[in-house]
Amino acid sequence: MIYYKKLKPIQAITFDLDDTLYENTSVIVNAERSLIEFMHQQYPATRHVDKGFWRIQQQAHILANPSLKNDMGELRRLTLKTGFRKLGLSGVELDTATTLCFKHFYFQRSNFTLNRNIHSLLKILADRLPLVAITNGNVDLQQIGISEYFCGSFKASLELPMKPHKAMFDAAQTFLSIPHENILHVGDNLPKDIYGALKAGFQTAWYAEDRSMNMRNENAHVLPHVQLSHLTQLLDLI
């Protein structure tokens, strides 16, 4: 553990999820692959287009409404619907295809199991102080089996922009009704998690599950309060 700044008493912890509690890149890659296979089986017209086709639909929606970058779920739904429409679907068939594929992806996106040590740690922490999830993604906490440890969760949306915007941090602080400076945010992304949390007045702990943690390799303009070698070191802080 490396301390960069003095910590004040911690009364609650907010957690980033993707790449903090688990490695997320392979999860998304597998979910995307499963979606393509599902579409090819259910809707033969999709066999004649590649990933670039879907990327063009996505980019068109972002250009028309840049705020959609804050809501990956809605962006994906609109991308699917536009793509299927261009492939000739309409009416009920269009709505059904969009809904089925949307649901398939988000089931696969949360179709993984966390390390048992993470469950044990979150259980111990949750017994001692409130935990809140703050994520730019949209993993299903119940499906991956950790919803019971969190008293609240906030996901990026059109109403709550992605980190490093302070909207979700402020929402979590209001929900907890605990002073900003007594909340510790744990996250892997220095520009988004650490900078965003500091801007909101939180204390911060940097931990990345998906890569070796070398500050020199990071796009960092601010330092966290503490850098963890293992998530279990959170127990030493409370």
What's the arrangement of secondary structure elements?
Elements: E1 2-3, E2 12-15, H1 25-42, H2 51-64, H3 72-86, H4 91-109, H5 116-128, E3 131-135, E4 152-155, H6 167-176, E5 183-187, H7 190-199, E6 203-206, E7 226-227, H8 234-237
Number of E strands: 7
Tell me the distance between the termini: 14 Å
Largest sheet: 7 strands, mixed
Major sheet: arrangement of strands: 1-7-6-5-2-3-4
Q: What is the typical, i.e. mean, pLDDT?
A: 95
Tally of separate domains: 2
- Helix fraction, binned, reads 40-55%
Assembly state here? single chain
Radius of gyration: 19 Å
- Could you name the CATH class of the largest domain? Alpha Beta
**What is the name of the CATH topology of the largest domain?**
Rossmann fold
Shape: elongated
The SSE string, one letter per element, is EEHHHHHEEHEHEEH
Name of the CATH architecture of the largest domain: 3-Layer(aba) Sandwich
Number of helices: 8
Strand content: 5-15%
Structural class by SSE content: alpha/beta
